[in-house]
Amino acid sequence: MYPFSFGTYPLDNFCCQLSHDQNKTITSLDLSSASASENAEAAELQRMIAVEQQKAQFQAQVHTFTDVCWDKCIDKPSSKLDSRTETCLVNCVERFIDTTLTITNRFTNMVQKGGMH
């Protein structure tokens, strides 16, 4: 699908970490007066929305990788990638993932420790 691989990074975990707070954007449905089947339908709808939000977040990240790494690594368009360009793209994406995960983890730690108000 893409001209480079993501190496051995756990992308499912990465995607979930990036979209961890996405569920908070979903308005909670008032389930107190709903029937059991309505509750199940509402819960399934919320789950489906959360999945779609995670997919959208992941696609946005891939788009960002493409923008950043294309500008950094592609000197001139050609019909195929040479080894130097491919290595540059792989390294660029891996550093981008590393940086994003580090920032996400530090922010999460700050919030858990009460460092953000």
Automatic annotation (TrEMBL):
Keywords: Chaperone, Disulfide bond, Membrane, Mitochondrion, Mitochondrion inner membrane, Protein transport, Translocation, Transport. Belongs to the small Tim family. One of its GO terms (cellular component) is mitochondrial inner membrane. SUPFAM superfamilies: Tim10-like (SSF144122). The twin CX3C motif contains 4 conserved Cys residues that form 2 disulfide bonds in the mitochondrial intermembrane space. This is Mitochondrial import inner membrane translocase subunit. It is found in: Mitochondrion inner membrane. Heterohexamer. One of its GO terms (biological process) is protein transport. Mitochondrial intermembrane chaperone that participates in the import and insertion of some multi-pass transmembrane proteins into the mitochondrial inner membrane. Also required for the transfer of beta-barrel precursors from the TOM complex to the sorting and assembly machinery (SAM complex) of the outer membrane. Acts as a chaperone-like protein that protects the hydrophobic precursors from aggregation and guide them through the mitochondrial intermembrane space. Residues 48-108 form the Tim10-like domain. It is a peripheral membrane protein. Gene3D superfamilies: Mitochondrial import inner membrane translocase subunit tim13 like domains.
